[in-house]
Amino acid sequence: MKKADLKVPQLFRMFAPYFVLLKPVKWHFAGALIFGTITGAVGGFGFPFMAYKILPKVFGETPPTGWMLAGVVGMLPLAFLLKGVSQFFNQYLAAFCGARVLVQLQERLYRKLQELPLAFFGKSRIGDLMARVNGDATTVQIVVTQFSNELLKQPIAFIGAIGALIYMAVQKKEMLFILFALAIIPLCVLPIRYVGKRLLARACQLQDSAGNIATALNENLSAVREVRAFNLQERENTRFSALLNRMAVYTIKTAKYGNMLAPTIEWISACGVSGAIFYVARANMGIQDILPLLTALYMTYDPIKKLGAIHRLLKVGEASVKRIEYILHAEDTVLNAKNPVPFLPGKAGIGFENVTFAYADEPVLKNIDLTIPAGTTVALVGPSGAGKSTFVNLIPRFYDVDEGRIRIGGTDVRSYSKNDLRAHVSIVSQDTVLFNDTIRNNIRLGRQNATDAEVETAARHAFVHDFVTQFEEGYETMVGERGARLSGGQKQRIAIARAFLKNAPVLIMDEATSSLDSESEEKVQLALNELVQGKTVILIAHRFSTIRMADRIIVMENGMVRASGTHAELYVADALYKSLYDKQFIE
After folding, report:
1. Which CATH superfamily, name and number, covers 8-328?
2. Sequence-separated (6 or more) residues with CB below 8 Å from residue 41
3. DSSP notation for 346-399
4. Residue 418: enclosing H or E segment and its boundaries?
């Protein structure tokens, strides 16, 4: 698809929201601009003007005295020293500002990702999101700081050089030289527009390709066991090589257009300088007259070349802005209540009232009408795809219903703040996620202000303490990325310990004991019998041995409640339940 080529004013408006990121470092950035102004002024006006004043004294008809020669010659290194020092501080302060801008931008992206609903992640690739937060945010930061810095420095250098050129030409009465020099400048601008159009398209392809590579790498590293179990190494190598080669093609094309600009402008500038040399040679001017004019002429073209590089950077940045705004402008479809009501303790009965929900227009739950009294335990059973996980995901508002309502304690869950609602719901799932932290801190996620004693009490209830004591560092043992140092059963017991620690009135257990061996399951089942006391509990189970504690069993099929009752009632009255039960216990 062809990318629209934005004009420079439109690019300014696109980047305007990101320039405010410089506000916290405004004094550092002001310093960068001041030193940049000095750099531009010395380079643009100072050097040509010095050449204009110094060369006649050195190469004039009257030989300079020793002190005069020393003073005149000494001005040149002093001028370069001034330019060098100011350029150092300009670039250092700009880099300082850039680092702080990047922190703010990545923090903003990260915070936004924490707020977005699960539906957003369902349609996005994790690796691509990582590339947007890392690579694209860095590109935008470079554009913001370099563009803001160069936008003052280079025009000052250009104006200074033009001023010096005009001053010297007027003094020498060489106005035709000025007209010739100015006529070349528009020719330097033409390639900027030509290259910009093509560069944007290549930059978009390059950054999308970087996202694809990040996605593939994330998938591979998250599935190291599966890759080896199914002998997929060669397939993965081939797939990754293809992505790398595609990115290499886009990198080369981007480099082709990105690096085309500077030599093109330099060639046009060289033509201008050659024409100027031809002109001054015909005018029979001396070396002391020619060099200042040529120096000023060159200093006129140099800022144009650097501004062309900024335009190139803007085009690359344009692609990155669009990619990070995919995150920043994403809508939170699960909104907080404007005037949330407090969650009252002891009122945790759950009611589904004609609830319908669909993923991308594909119905998953249809007209669910169900009441779960406070303090009771309900088990959800049914074939895969019946809607059991979606059912429980709607309770803490990971998604919002399309039709109907869900009440907890008689109040629509949309009337609570999301944080308050989720603080009163514990979830223990079969896919336990642990952070690369200590066992203690992973349990403490259940209640972050819990004391060490409370953490260990919860660990004992979940039989975590049994295996923690086998580690040399005990509760301070690092679990590794995603809990790599622990077995599946150990990870699930930590998840159950979190639920003990949180002690929320609503407890959702999605195959919470699926990775436990028989002995561990028996122990944890005893602990769960204690945990569920006084709580409203929803169990999702494929193993019927785990639903013995349920007061009622709900049979789901095709997104609807098919039947409900006790095991004895359902085994006689519902053919699907009987089939599922017999398949597990008879076979």
Report:
1. ABC transporter type 1, transmembrane domain (1.20.1560.10)
2. 156, 157, 160
3. T---EEEEEEEEEETTEEEEEEEEEEE-TT-EEEEE-STTSSHHHHHHHTTTSS
4. helix 418-423
Work out the number of other CB atoms within 10 angstroms of the CB of residue 582.
11
* pLDDT for residue 378 is more than 90: yes
Residue range(s) occupied by CATH 3.40.50.300 in the chain: 350-585
The CA distance from 471 to 469, in Å, is 5
From residue 566, how far is each of 156, 231, 376, 549, 572 by CA, in Å? 84, 46, 13, 11, 10
Pairwise pLDDT comparison (216 vs 350), residue with the higher score:
350
Are residues 496 and 520 in contact, defined by beta-carbon separation less than 8 angstroms?
no
Domain boundaries for CATH 1.20.1560.10 within the chain: 8-328
> Rg of the chain over CA atoms, in angstroms?
35
- What's the pLDDT band for 6 if we cut at 50, 70, 90? low
| pLDDT for the residue numbered 492 | 83
Of the candidates 275, 354, 265, the one whose C-alpha atom is nearest the C-alpha of residue 560 is 354
The set of residues, in sequence order, having a beta carbon less than 8 Å from that of 25 and lying 6+ positions away, is 96, 97, 100, 101
> Which residue in this structure is represented by tokens 């053919």?
575
350-585: CATH superfamily:
P-loop containing nucleotide triphosphate hydrolases (3.40.50.300)
Task: Identify residue 280 by its one-letter amino acid code.
Answer: V
For residue 95, the surrounding DSSP H or E stretch is helix 66-115
